[in-house]
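Quick start: what a row looks like.
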Amino acid sequence: MRVARGTLLRNLAGSIGVLCTVAGLAFGLPALDRALPAQRPAGDGPYPVGGGVTVTPPPGARLDVTLTRPSDHRGTAVFLVGSVRYVVVVTPFDGSLADATSRLRRKITGVRGHEITGKEFPIRTTGGLDGLQGSYAAPGRAGRYLVFRAGDVAIEVTAAGSAPALRAALGAIEASTRTIAYRGGTA
């Protein structure tokens, strides 16, 4: 059976086109991903974390776009304040503030070398959310945690870095946490 020369050339051209497309996807997309910055300025206004929760980031904070995941019912916002990692996590939750705080303490102490230090203290946002705050430590790192309950969500906040870096950033982070607001879920 003879195949026309034109058919062979069309098949060859199509095959080369498919090969170029696959190569472009295999090498071009990862190169583009590496070229895009993982962090960008967080901005000045309220940032929508998710689940109806907003927070105004500290001045000069950077948003880690690789770890930040906002959605209608939950969300995570990861900010960098200097070298301090400041994280706000919103999850659906129907327990009490004490239950939510116990859950976050278990998450913290579940990481090898992390331990809760000191006492917990009540905290209140400027919008009227009541919560609890405490501190934790790990080798070479210091941390703060806060927990709030609002509507059908728990709001967990952690800030961690070297002790000197955390001390330097703490005023701006505390001012930011006071801006956490719950506007209600979208469900």
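That is the whole record. The chain has three helices and twelve strands. Residues 5-35 form the longest helix (31 residues).
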